[in-house]
Design brief:
- This protein has 8 helices and 15 strands.
- With 342 residues, it is of the alpha+beta class.
- The chain folds into 2 domains: 127 residues, 60s Ribosomal Protein L30, Chain: A (2-Layer Sandwich); 157 residues, PurM-like C-terminal domain (Phosphoribosyl-aminoimidazole Synthetase, Chain A, domain 2).
- A 7-stranded mixed β-sheet has the order 10-12-9-13-11-14-15.
- Strand 6, helix 3 and strand 7 form a beta-alpha-beta unit.
- The two termini are 22 Å apart.
Length: 342
């Protein structure tokens, strides 16, 4: 995380990767103080914050805002995305989500049937996750002052022992719960009208039930959801925070053929593109296969694989062992190559 200052906010500062690190490090963390006993907050840069001391349980709190364009896309919409994103931020910290809030800002003139579709999608996804919305807020802005709708969701969960994104050790295995790049590349294909035999769908989904199975199957030492900036950004953040090396085997990373085809066509890497229904899981070497086995029995985890391991080599860096036998650094992207992705 850098403390470099930003002169003006650009779209890329909200797209994950190195550019967003500049905004957070140079302007957020340098302004807000959050040192408090029994809490893990902003400085830890995890997917949520923890508050301890409530009947022996730890509370996990997270919040997220959603401005995806278009509002409806193959495999999902802004409503499903908003609920899934917040549920997943809690789930990768090992928490069982309990309740959510929803705050929306709507542009004057938005058709009411569009709003109703979004609300219905949010409710269906809440039921899928088993997490209700219990409070919220609605604001309307004059036409032209916002692009249709923005949704903020916050969530609270409970956990006995939080899982961080940097608590793993050398020798632990790195697992992904499924194919990468599906969300971002599906949006590119849809936006640009790219003609391929396979029509891609976003992977947007709540993962709390799937990740609970993973926790029950093995010893989990770290988790993170690779959203903006994709797998590359998430792995680099985990390596940097843990000061350990991560070795990834390119041949083992599951990528759909159609995702590779679209990515090659427009010159981007599936490693750098957002996922909204996948998680990175670190597990001890003796339990990693059990975790993959448990994940593979569920539709959301049927493509789960071990893709690498934690090492002491090149602390803070991610090494990619390529399919042709070479080795190179897998750097974090400047930002997700697809704007307005979530």
């Amino acid at each position: 995380m850098t403390d470099k200052k930003v002169d003006k906010v650009k779209v890329i500062h909200g797209a994950g990767g190195k550019a967003m690190d500049e905004l957070i490090g140079g302007h957020v963390l340098s302004t807000f103080t959050n040192k408090s006993a029994g809490m893990i907050g902003l400085d830890n840069l995890d997917d949520g914050a923890t508050i301890e001391g409530h009947d022996g349980k730890t509370l996990v709190l997270t919040t997220d805002s959603h401005v995806v364009s278009p509002l409806f896309f193959p495999g999902g919409d802004i409503g499903r995305l908003a609920i899934s994103g917040t549920v997943n931020d809690l789930a990768v910290m090992g928490a069982d989500p309990v309740a959510m809030t929803s705050s929306i800002i709507v542009e004057e003139g938005l058709e009411m049937d569009v709003l109703d579709r979004i609300f219905q999608s949010m409710e269906e996804t809440c039921k899928e996750a088993g997490v209700p919305i219990i409070t919220g807020d609605t604001k309307v802005m004059e036409k032209g002052n916002i692009d249709k709708i923005a949704i903020n969701t916050a969530g609270v969960g409970v956990v006995n022992q939080p899982v961080t994104d940097s608590g793993f050790s050398p020798g632990d295995k790195i697992i992904v719960t499924g194919t990468i790049g599906d969300h971002g590349v599906a949006l590119i294909q849809f936006r640009e009208g790219l003609s391929f035999k396979t029509k891609l769908k976003s992977d947007t989904a709540p993962l709390n039930h799937l990740l609970k199975l993973a926790r029950e199957a093995g010893k989990i030492t770290g988790m993170k959801d690779p959203t903006r900036g994709g797998l590359a950004a998430a792995l680099n953040e985990m390596a940097d925070k843990s000061n350990l090396g991560l070795t990834i085997y390119e041949a083992e990373v599951p990528v759909k053929e159609a995702v590779t085809g679209v990515s090659d066509l427009i010159g981007i890497s599936p490693f750098n593109v957002a996922n909204e229904g996948k998680a990175i899981i670190m597990a001890t070497a003796d339990t990693a296969e059990d975790v993959v086995g448990a994940l593979s029995e569920e539709p959301l985890g049927e493509d789960a694989k071990i893709i690498g391991e934690v090492t002491e080599e090149r602390p803070g860096k991610v090494i990619l062992e390529t399919e042709v036998g070479g080795r190179r650094f897998l750097d974090a992207p400047l930002g997700d190559p697809v704007p307005r992705i979530c």
